[in-house]
Structure formats: structure tokens, C-alpha cells
Amino acid sequence: MATVLPSPPRVGMVSLGCPKNLVDSERILTRLRAEGYQLSPDYEGADVVLVNTCGFLDSAKEESLEAIGEAIAENGRVIVTGCMGKEADVIRARFPQVLAVTGAHQYEQVVGAVHEAAPVGRSPYLDLMPGAAVEDTELKLTPRHYSYLKISEGCNHRCAFCIIPSLRGDLVSRRPDAILREAEKLVAAGTKELLVISQDTSAYGIDIRNEPRAWKGREVVPHMTDLARELGRIAPWVRLHYVYPYPHVDQVIPLMAKGLVLPYLDIPFQHASPSVLRAMRRPANEAKVLQRIAKWRTICPDIAIRSSFVVGFPGETEADFQYLLDWLDEAQLDRVGAFRFEPVEGAAANHLPDHVPEAVKEERYARVMERTAAISAAKLHAKIGRTLPVIIDEVGEEGATGRSQADAPEIDGQVLLRDAAHLAAGDIVDVLIEDADEHDLFGVPFEGLSPRP
To answer: What is the mean pLDDT of residues 401-416?
Structure first.
């Protein structure tokens, strides 16, 4: 008589928020898959659904609560994790039927909750071999050719508008050799672009600065510059995100000029007015920042700088906002995102005087986006006629979509290619830029050149 093997439980996942949350989701699912769980692409086929929440802003919290409600309505068996897990009382008050609530990057607690909700049935036919290590069977929620690489957790800053330290704690850096091993495995599995993420990439290693690690016969110091140099020896493209403009960031620019790291910096400036920056509890020497940007462009002319700014912060006057617009005109940043100030429970900024009316926030938001769109259009138009390296993300019958070195996935622009159906996702090719708009470039693969390895 044939033996009928037990059907393993199936887990669904809803992942919200930033790339750091996405990395957490990948690690949770990887661990569960290594233990024998299967993944479900929909609510109906799942034995339990995980909702990885975002709690950075009140609007993000509401989106997380809506996602929890949808999962309960569609499936009924829901485990909540992520940043909003700090507010378990709020979640349970609205959804008392949730099975468990855990906080950000609490992998063991999440997996334990899944074990209770949908235990794996053991079988000698399925358990003859021990499970592989999680890091050897990494499951990815991004396309094969690019991967997020988280180098630390938490943050030591206490910005007035932010509650991340209360959600994720102070800075905890990973060992450099562990990061480099993960990078090697990702590249061996097909990753062409490593996107380095953390809450504060520039601060990497300050908590373990006296703990260098052996790597390939040499010592690697836990420092952003050293780590970036080593990663550049592993992956074709290395992109740095969430880089605070500490003085030692200057040391990374020569690595960009040499091609070890992509000429791209994601720096959260947040504002330019000294008075607003002080109220935000941010560094306020904006003039020196402009001087440094000019020096960076001298060393690495193709460097692309993206940033985000908050408009309508409590106490922001029209003069402060005009100061920001003038600063942006001088800085000529390549990519800019803007956010209207939004109070979030637990943030010190909520208690500041002189909150800006919503109508004024909207008007300022529209003005800053109009100004930065014009800057972006001019900078992209200047690339017409140049040949740029482009990584391919998608290929269709009519062409392909990719990104230049100045474009991070999901947040920046794209390069739209004609006559590119012969390419494949992950190819890095030289592209002749033929046209541009406010956000995207248009081009064709450079004739006579094959895809790079």
C-alpha cells in the first residue's frame, strides 16, 4: 500500500513599508520554507497569513491596519509582525482575533507563532536529511538580479519627527564578514546589483568599531568605507542607501570614481533652513553641505544624489520654505522626493508650536515638486546623446525597461529601451540615450556591444 505523505502547511505574506521590512519578510519566509512550509500566493490557499506592518507615520499605520483587516476577512488566521508590533494593544483592540503580534525583526517569535498556528507534520520520509541553513537557502521577494543587503538595525539619532528608534532600537551593526558572505551568496545566485540598506548606513560599525574581522586573508574594519570597498569587489553594482552626510562620506566618493561603488548617494537631507533643521534635531550646516556636493562632483562628475525633504514642519515659515527652494536650485540634486509633515504618535515634533495649516502644506508640496521636476528634466535632457550602462529589469515584445546607475528600483526613474527584445533581466548593457522627460530616459542598446557578464 502506498504511503501518503502529509501536505505541509502553506503560509501567505503581506509585506508593507520600506526595503528593510522586505528583508525581514525574506528572512522569515526563508526560515519557514527551510522548516518545510510552503508559500501561498493568495489568502485562500494559506493556512496562516503573516502581515509585516509599517509604523513610521500614522498614514502607514492605518494602511497596516487595513491590510490586517483584509487578511482577517479573506483568511481569518493572521499573525502580525513588523514596526507596528510595538502597538499590540491597538492592533488587538481593533482585531481581537489575530493569533499573535510581534515586533520588528523578531524572527524567532514570528516563527514560533507560525509553529503554534500551523504546525508542520513530521514524517521520516520528509525529515531524513537535516534542513539547510537559512542563509544557504535564501528566499527572495525581489527579482533575481538585484537584492537588498541590510547591514545594521536601529538608529542612534533622535530626530524630532521620527519614532524609528523606539520601534527598532539603537544601532546594531552586523559583522562585516557576515555581510560579505551574504553578498557572495547573493551574487553566486544571480544578483547583479546589491542595494545596501539600514536606518543609517554612514553609522555602520560605530558600535563594533574595535572588532575587525578576517576576510579572504585580510582584516576588514567595520566601517562604511571599508565595507563598500569590499562589496565593490564582489558585485557588479553596489548602491548605497540612507547615507547621512557625515564627514567620512567623502572617503566613499573616490571609490565611485574608480567604479567600485555606483556613483549614487541616497542622503536624507530633510530640509535646508537652519532653523527648521535645528527644530528637527538634524545637522544644520547647509552651506558646508553645498561645498561638499560641489567637491564630490569634481571627484566623480557622474555622481547622482537623491534626497527627501519634509515640507510643513512645525514652525516652518514662508522664508524657511523659500530658503529650501533656493538651496535646491543651487544643489541641483538629481532625484528628490518630498513629504508633507505628518504627526505620528510618540514623535517629539507633535508638541512643537506653530503647526503649519494643511492647505499651506499642500501648496508648498506642489511648489517643491514643480521646482525639483524642472531640475530633474534638465539634468536628464543633458544625458541625451550619451552612452550609459543600464541594468535590465523587464523585457517584453516591444522593448525593455531598465535603470541607469542613477536610478534605484521602485523610487527613481527608468530607462525605456526600443529594439531590446533580445535582452534578459539582469543584463547590464550600454545604451545610447535618445530622449528624456522629467523622470525617465529613452534609448536603444548600443550597436555592436553584447550584454556584459
So the answer is: 95
* 180 backbone dihedrals φ, ψ, rounded to 5°: -70, -35
- Concatenating the DSSP letter of every residue in 193-236 gives EEEEE-S-GGGTTTTSTT--EEETTEEE-SSHHHHHHHHHTT-S
Nearest CA to 244 among 280, 208, 215?
Answer: 280
Query: Taking all residues of the chain, what is their mean pLDDT, rounded to a whole number?
Result: 88
Yes or no: say if 61 and 16 are a contact pair by the CB < 8 Å rule: no
Our measurement of the distance from residue 101's CA atom to the centroid of its chain's CA atoms, rounded to an integer in Å, reads 24
- Kind and range of the H or E element at 402? strand 400-404
Strand partners, 79: 50, 100
> Strand, helix or coil at 16?
coil
Query: What distance in Å separates the CA atoms of residue 149 and residue 140, rounded to the nearest whole number?
Result: 11
| Structure-derived torsion over alpha carbons of residues 286, 287, 290, 292, reported in degrees to the nearest 10 | -100
pLDDT digits 0-9 by tens, 176-194: 999 999 999 999 999 999 9
In this predicted model, which residue has the larger pLDDT, 25 or 429? 429
3 state SS of 55: coil
For 90, the grid coordinates are 491597538
The model scores a pTM over 0.85: no
State how far the Cα of 167 lies from the Cα of 147, in Å rounded to an integer: 24
pLDDT at 125: 38
